[in-house]
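Weekly sync, protein design subgroup
Attendees: M.S., D.O., the rotation student, P.L. (late)

Item 1: inverse folding check
M.S. brought a backbone from last month's batch and wanted to see whether the design step gives back something sensible before we order anything. D.O. pointed out we never logged the input encoding, so this time it goes straight into the notes. Structure tokens as presented (217 positions):
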């Protein structure tokens, strides 16, 4: 099964992609994670992408399309994948259509995680993750059970994304509404769109997504 999670930054795409990926054995393809890995590794792509990402703008289509093209060809994508943060423009969506067709794959469903705009800045600006295992936390909504210690792996170092600050989030939201929100209409017209309530708890959103996937299996 191949699916896309669609929604603004802070909607919970990454959180839910991880849950579905663990539960269903699907590969989680996050272009944001791949770009951050490229930045950390100091590759050519990473060097070019860093300043753009730090400003909260979108990396050029061709860059992310190439990343996804290479990633989708890997063996772990054979049993299916979840796209998290891609496509983000109509040009990327068209490239994905062509790519899937060329690989004899099909898109099963696009799940829009719908949230009220008012909560996004607070949700994003409070995020941090364990530096060792990547478990996600939040200053207000999900603190570690023992202050300063990761619930999952016991590590004591945490990191915050450079672009998870109130100022950059505004630019990211503008990019979302200008470039990415039109994809909701694009996939609706193709009969692929399903919507879940992203204002519900993490577990409840997960349950709604499972219900959608059950209908598309
Ligand atoms: P994310 O982790 O999905 O919030 O992505 C972090 C940043 O990476 C974005 O603000 C963009 O600068 C860049 N990025 C990730 N995915 C894409 C994409 N599909 N198209 C363009 N830029 C992207």
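Designed sequence read out in the meeting:
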């Amino acid at each position: 099964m191949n699916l896309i999670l669609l929604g603004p930054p802070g909607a919970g795409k990454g959180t839910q992609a991880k849950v579905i990926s663990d539960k269903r054995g699907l590969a989680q393809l996050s272009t944001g994670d791949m770009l951050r890995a490229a930045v950390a590794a100091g590759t050519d792509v990473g060097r070019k992408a860093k300043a753009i990402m730090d400003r909260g703008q979108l990396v050029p289509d061709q860059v992310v399309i190439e990343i996804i093209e290479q990633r989708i060809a890997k063996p772990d994508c054979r049993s299916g994948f979840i796209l998290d943060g891609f496509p983000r423009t109509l040009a990327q969506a068209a490239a994905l259509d062509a790519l899937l067709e060329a690989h004899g794959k099909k898109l099963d469903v696009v799940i829009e995680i719908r949230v009220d705009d008012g909560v996004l800045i607070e949700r994003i600006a409070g995020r941090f993750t364990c530096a060792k295992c990547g478990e996600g936390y939040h200053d207000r909504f999900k603190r570690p059970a023992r202050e300063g210690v990761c619930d999952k792996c016991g590590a004591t170092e945490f990191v915050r994304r450079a672009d998870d600050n109130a100022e950059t989030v505004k630019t990211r939201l503008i990019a979302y509404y200008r470039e990415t929100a039109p994809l909701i209409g694009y996939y609706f017209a193709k009969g692929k769109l399903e919507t879940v309530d992203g204002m519900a708890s993490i577990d409840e959103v997960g349950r709604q997504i499972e219900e959608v996937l059950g209908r598309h299996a």
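Discussion: The radius of gyration is 17 Å. Residues 9, 31-32, 35, 52-53, 56-59, 64, 85-86, 88, 92, 163, 172 surround adenosine monophosphate (CB under 6 Å).
Action: P.L. to compare against the previous round before Friday.
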